[in-house]
Amino acid sequence: MKRVVIVGGGIAGLAVAKTLIEGGLKAEITVVTQNPHYFAGPSRPLLLTNEQSLDRIVRGYEEVAQKVKVVVGTVYAVNPAERKVKYVGGYTSHGGIGELSYDYLVLAPGIVLDGSGITGYAENRGNVANVYDPGRVSVLKNRVWNAEKGTVVVYAPKAPYRCAPAPTETALLIDAVLRHRGVRDKFKIIHIDANDKTQPPVIADVVSQIYAKAGIEVVTNQEIVEIGKNYVVTKSGEKYQYDILALLEPNRAPKFVEEAGLGKTWIEVRSPQDLRHPKFDDVLAAGDAAGLPFPKNQEIAFESALFAANKILEMEGLTYRASVQYAFLGWAYVGNLEGRLETYSLMFGLDFTTQPPKPQKDPQPKTDYTKAKDRWEQTYLRQLFGY
Ligand SMILES: Cc1cc2nc3c(=O)[nH]c(=O)nc-3n(C[C@H](O)[C@H](O)[C@H](O)COP(=O)(O)OP(=O)(O)OC[C@H]3O[C@@H](n4cnc5c(N)ncnc54)[C@H](O)[C@@H]3O)c2cc1C
């Protein structure tokens, strides 16, 4: 029986496994994933305003393990010539070093946050919070709910990074919490962006109007190159003081990708529809770690996974193909200027089936869009994790 190893039990990895099963592939499918649980990304920013709770966005792998083998471990090396994957166990019952052999390898490990290019990052790592992992959201939340006055600096690195609107969401949700607490006038909020516009560009004009109403200062085209104890410095030498820093580090694929010669920042693929590595027919990429010319978000991650699974089914001579194209709809949280902990969102989308890609948006923020995003996120979790 063929062996398929999938690295990463997130949106893309589990979508590959599900599609291979739906396609009738008779294979031993193993998902190796870092943690015994998964935290969904999209609504993490709402933990700041208490509109989301961790229990609604955490999933275990026990239902998934009824259908495929799940190994909890961190992959640290891939040898494409020998078709081997090495991992170190992250779960007591699977503890220690392990190795898996494969006929097909699908790499879907998502991104890592890499601050190593920023001077002073290691020394001041404790000052860096953001909405990108549950621990750090909780730190950021604690700071925002307890500080009495000061400057909040929010930072977005150069695109592509995971979830384009997350930095603006962070700035506007912090604004809402401070308003709710009645202390907004004691704070300055500055959004520093390494890009020429806040991301995604399709809603940058609306965000700019909301920022103006909220009194959030925005500085574009400024890459943070240094972090000090209470200041950051940008490439052009501008210095900004901070009391609270919500900085997103540049994103990249985990280091083992580069060490295996599979890509430098992202995993190389032949094309968005053919996600095989250019040098290896049996190594495919999916999700945020894949080097695709699209934004890094859940819809694109899912769609790339279906393309990757379709390719394996094709190579195995099976006729089933999941229906898929690259297009997405998204919802960006834009806070609440009245200080109610009831978040408004903007709806936007991009359709990559036309050239140039077709953007769409509703410039009117709505609380209904926040609810729609929640339903969408829960639907994905139910489909992939079985509950
Ligand atoms: C704060 C935040 C807000 C977001 N907002 C939105 C949004 O509004 N809309 C939207 O569409 N998307 C949003 N996203 C992005 C969305 O969550 C990702 O694009 C999507 O999860 C990518 O899927 P993936 O499978 O590539 O990565 P993930 O879902 O992250 O899955 C990767 C899995 O691989 C595991 N892994 C990592 N390294 C290893 C390793 N070395 N060995 C084994 N396993 C490993 C990880 O633990 C994880 O379980 C947001 C993300 C975050 C964090």
Automatic annotation (TrEMBL):
Q: Which SUPFAM superfamilies match?
A: FAD/NAD(P)-binding domain
Signal peptide range equals: none
Q: GO molecular function of the protein, one example?
A: oxidoreductase activity
| Domain FAD/NAD(P)-binding positions | 3-130
Q: Which domain of life is it from?
A: Archaea
Q: By its UniProt entry, which Pfam families does this protein fall under?
A: FCSD_central (PF21706), Pyr_redox_2 (PF07992)
Q: Which InterPro entries match?
A: FAD/NAD-bd_sf, FAD/NAD-binding_dom, FCSD_central, SQRD
Domain Sulfide dehydrogenase [flavocytochrome c] flavoprotein chain central residue range list = 141-247
What name is this protein filed under? FAD-dependent pyridine nucleotide-disulfide oxidoreductase
